[in-house]
Amino acid sequence: MNYRNLGKWGLKVSEVALGSWVTDLAGTEAEKTAQSTVNAAFDAGVNFFDCADAYSGGAAERFLGKALKQHSRNEYVVSSKVFFPMGRGANDWGLSRKHIIEQLDKTLKNMQLDYLDLYFCHRFDPTTPIEETMQVLSDLVAAGKILYYGVSEWSPVQITEAVAVTKEYHLRPLSVIQPEYNMVDRYIEDEIIGICEKNGIGITTFSPLAQGLLTGKYRKGAPIPAGSRATWQADRQINNLLTEENLDKVERLLPVAERVGVPLSVLALAWILRKKQVTSVITGASKPAQLETNVKASGLVLPQDVLDEIDAILDYHPFFRKIG
Q1: Annotation marks residue 181 as catalytic
Q2: For residue 13, which of 45, 48, 149, 270 is within the disulfide window of CB 3.0 to 4.6 Å?
Q3: Which residue in the list 55, 148, 181, 218 is annotated as catalytic?
Q4: HEC states along 87-117?
């Protein structure tokens, strides 16, 4: 396993991380499998574990805290997020000082921790002044409850404004973002990567396999595999990705992966890690074998001719408007 600095900061995290978004905790056997996956991650050198208060209504935080308890605190980096409703009250969601402080206390209790390494604002809150949000996050760093903070799905303008606020008010800096990034969703290449590079902000990407599209399990003209995410995911995100265009790209990418000698999933992860601005890719794994496959992407350098072939297949065109 290779490790990268979190942007310009001193914290070092594994190139491949383990996330908890789709961790199955329904039943004793499922929890045992999830525990085995965490153990396999440690064995493979993974030191970064991502979670959120909204995952399974707090159950994911409680599970991860319990799973990590058998390891020394200095061995791992753990993150969580805040924003989505955690109750029915008017202040049970968002990025107000009240909600962030109260929810972080619940997260720390859930995970049996004294502090989080990383804490993310899951979404942008238009009902709270950004100065209020940045101030309370800075205060929590000063209090030692979090070490670094960042945002997840924020726009380039929102990220830029947050950075400006921290500088204007002399606050602890925004140090990391967690956006979606994969072969079929490259929007961060337009502006966000440049903003992060300029300000020394780390990038820990989620959904690097596009909900499973880039594993190769979904094939053009073939039925959806039984038990796959497309058969049970409530918001049907993967189903929306199963377009003719995307499935055509998968069919063309599979031979490339075969020539490189790796599964498509490993090719897709290594392709993300080609960007030096990316600190880590947050992967999901429902069983140890998936985790053991994913970590093979760490340290895999794709030759330029392979990268050129992939770019031709993906046919991405960044937004650009000529002025003048």
Answers
A1: no
A2: 48
A3: 55
A4: CCCCCCCCCCHHHHHHHHHHHHHHHCCCCEE
3-state helix, strand, coil in the chain (%, to 5): 45, 15, 40
Residue 284 structure tokens: 């999901």
- Which residue segments constitute the domains of the chain, with CATH numbers given? 3-314 (3.20.20.100)
Could you tell me where the beta strands, DSSP code E, fall in 45-159? Answer: 48-50, 77-82, 116-123, 146-153
pLDDT, tens digit, 9 for 90 and up, residues 289-316: 999 999 999 999 999 999 999 999 999 9
Of 16, 39, 24, whose CA–CA distance to 286 is shortest? Answer: 24
**Residue range 195-211: average pLDDT?**
97
Query: What is the end-to-end Cα distance of the chain in Å, rounded?
Result: 48
**Distance in angstroms (rounded) separating the CA atoms of residues 176 and 154:** 12
Question: Exposed, middle or buried, 221 (CB in 10 Å: 0-12/13-18/19+)?
Answer: exposed
CB 210 within 8 A of CB 292: no
Six-digit token string for 281: 């890719």
Helix 156-168 with 192-199: angle, nearest 10 deg: 20
**What single letter denotes the amino acid at residue 5?**
N
Q: Which two tokens stand for residue 217?
A: 């399990």
Of residues 182 and 20, more confidently modeled: 182
One-letter amino acid of 210: A
